[in-house]
Amino acid sequence: MTIISNDILTNKTVSPYNSSIGSHIRHILDFYDCVLVKSNTIDLTARKRNSDVETNCEKALEYYNNILKKIYAIEENDLDKIISVTDDLGLGNIRIDYTFSGLLAQANSHTIHHYAIINYILEGLGVCLNDETFGYNPTTPKVNSLN
Fold it and tell me: In terms of Cα–Cα distance, which of 120, 113, 103 is closest to 136?
């Protein structure tokens, strides 16, 4: 098992992204933190951007555990609730109505996208996760290997 150090978390040397694993982890967790507020209105452009998470593994794990508690607290009757979401899709802020489950599905897809980038950075740093599914959507076709 590989332990990620603060040095690995903050390393920005892998091209072409030159971004750190920590910045992607922070972005993912900030997105979930914003989505998991108990409200009928959510503004995705007003995320916390908890910068300590980018540089400190302990802070990242603490933030992750707080998000996980919020996920476990979701009640089934919350999933069909209609919520008003503000986001900037490139042309300024717009409001879109979602079901809460639809917003969670978007968060999941968004997370997988960032996991793929994290996986690329880890590979560039020579860090092996030993998880062939990390960064891939579960619906991604598997390539059958020939022995």
Answer: 113
